Amino acid sequence: MLKALGGLDPEVAEAAALAHDIGHPPFGHAGEEILDELVRGRGCPDGFEGNAQSFRIITKIAFRKFDPDNPPGLDLCRATLRATLKYPWLRKRDSGGHPIPENKRSQKWGAYDTERADFEFAMDMRPPTDEERSLETEIMDWADDITYAVHDLEDFYRAGLIPLPSLVHPTNEREFFLSWTELHKVIDRSAVEAAFEQIEWLLPDTPFTGDPTQLANLAVMRNQMIEGLVDAFTISANSGKVEIDERGRVLVEVLKAFTRCYVINSPDLESQRYGHRRIITELFEAFYFKSDEEDSSERRQSLHSPFFDREVFRSCHSARLAADYIASLSEAQVLQLYGRLTGHTLGSVRDLIV
To answer: Measured between alpha carbons, how far is 188 from 193 in angstroms, rounded to an integer?
Structure first.
């Protein structure tokens, strides 16, 4: 059956998993959203998207040899490139070149126009109208869902952000969560209640203290959930499509809803997002150059980074270049660079701009 579907290569799936999310910028989705606004606002209609940035990194920015200009990218095979395409299409835009609200292919996409040739190479062996994901992509995506659902749940419980002890049994807190899932149309209430029955015996009933017994119980919770969710993934012998068992799919949605409800949507995080957007905006403005005539060579030199010296960047849009640079930094590097450029943290003359 797998041969009829084009085969399934474990190493390709593993490579896609390793490449997944490498294009996500500092501060996660908040950073992604503001970079998209900034890049489009400077005349680059493709904007910014973490998955498309990942594809740009492996095909254009990263390099295998000391000479980074010949050729650019990691020179990956077609199967690996296609496996990284979680969204195997280019950005859908209206006649004016703007994103289309509520259109999935306008909000999430797999490659920029600058990597169109690499995208077409990756997708070349599928039928012309086929924009379905490869089997390796499906495996990578489900593995990502499991990781996000299970490990975030444990991490945020340890941090005291998700009140699992108050959710173990029917309580006011559980009712609050059930009402939240209804309000935000996450999933049907009865399905959420069924998921609770499935996992409540695994959930901790006391706040996290780091006690050895508690750590052992968390390991049991983590392993049991992961094992069950891995088993929920099958490939149908009839259709050749990937199928996720309904209980597994619902459980992942409920676990992800814990993080959305108690962490992502929290007022405290919203105030952080404001600061994150401001930091990225100011860095973008610092590294965006309109033209050689409008921006003095002195300013360019003061903000010089080896990142800008690559041949692959010399003809690219300045907005894309600024986004490439910011997306390449860790959150710690962004904060250090922001402090240096604003004078809040002067650092040392020996500190290099990354």
So the answer is: 9
Check if the beta carbon of residue 15 is closer than 8 Å to that of residue 83.
Answer: yes
The C-alpha atoms of residue 12 and residue 136 are separated, in whole angstroms, by 7
70 vs 64: CA distance, rounded Å = 10
Q: Give the CA distances from residue 335 to residues 28, 280, 323, 326, 345, in Å, rounded to whole numbers and listed in that order.
A: 14, 9, 16, 11, 9
Rounded CA gap, 323 and 23, in Å?
11
Give the span between the Cα atoms of 134 and 137, in whole angstroms.
5
Burial class (CB in 10 A: 0-12, 13-18, 19+), 158: middle
The per-residue pLDDT for range 202-217, each reduced to its tens digit, is: 999 999 999 999 999 9
CA dist 246 and 69 (Å) reads 48
Q: Quote the pTM value.
A: 0.88
Backbone CA torsion sign across 149, 152, 157, 162: negative
DSSP secondary structure string for all residues of 4-34: TTT---HHHHHHHHHHTTTT--TTHHHHHHH
Tens of pLDDT along 8-45?
Answer: 899 999 999 999 989 999 998 899 999 999 999 999 99
DSSP conformational letter for 295: S
Instruction: From 57, 74, 65, select the one nearest 22 (Cα to Cα).
Output: 57
Q: How many Cβ atoms from other residues are within 10 Å of residue 76's Cβ?
A: 21
